[in-house]
Amino acid sequence: MNLLKFFSPATRLKFYPPFWLMKIKVLKMDPLWRKVYIKLPLTRLSKNPGGGMFGGFQASLADPIAALACLKSFPGCEVWTRNLQLNFVREGRTDLELRFIFSDEQLLKIRDEMDQKGRSNPVFEYGFYDISGQICTEITCRVAIRPEGYVPRTRTINNT
After folding, report:
1. Res 3 pLDDT > 70
2. Residues 96-155: pLDDT tens digits?
3. Which letter, b or e, does each residue of 83-103 get, where b requires 16 or more Cβ atoms within 10 Å of its Cβ?
4. Residues near 128 by beta carbon (within 8 Å), at least 6 away in sequence
5. What is the spatial distance between Cα 158 and Cα 16, in angstroms, rounded to a whole number?
6. Which domains, and CATH codes, for the chain?
7. Distances in whole angstroms, Cα of residue 4 to Cα of each of 7, 8, 30, 71, 80
């Protein structure tokens, strides 16, 4: 019996071992993961020697969010992060808030691609904001969505 099913998705995310150690707090989570806001506190562990938030803390939290949102919208598919880019616009010297929004337009585009091509590689843009609401880190995440049992074409790499 899975005891976690008795907890809300927000609580399960909070207690996921890496996130529990980061002491995140889910501020807002739409049941379909269309809007997710998560607080990433600046702590002794997350603070770099210069006093700002370590980029690795931000990357670790940002990595699975878009893929988890796609998994919720496309159950039965295999979903993973293909590419994650972080642009550190300004140093995060306060608690940071990750703000992720999955728009209706993105959802429709992905559905069309899945119907036409049998797969999709959507790109999501979201970010971390400081307590004054200023962007600190811009995130660009490309997600792979494949039907269960999808067999990719093989690629060969020429090492010569």
Report:
1. no
2. 999 999 999 999 999 999 999 999 999 999 999 999 999 999 999 999 999 988 777 766
3. ebebeeeeebebbbbbbbebe
4. 40, 53, 58, 62, 92, 96, 97, 98, 99, 135, 136, 137, 139
5. 40
6. 3-147 (3.10.129.10)
7. 5, 8, 19, 18, 22
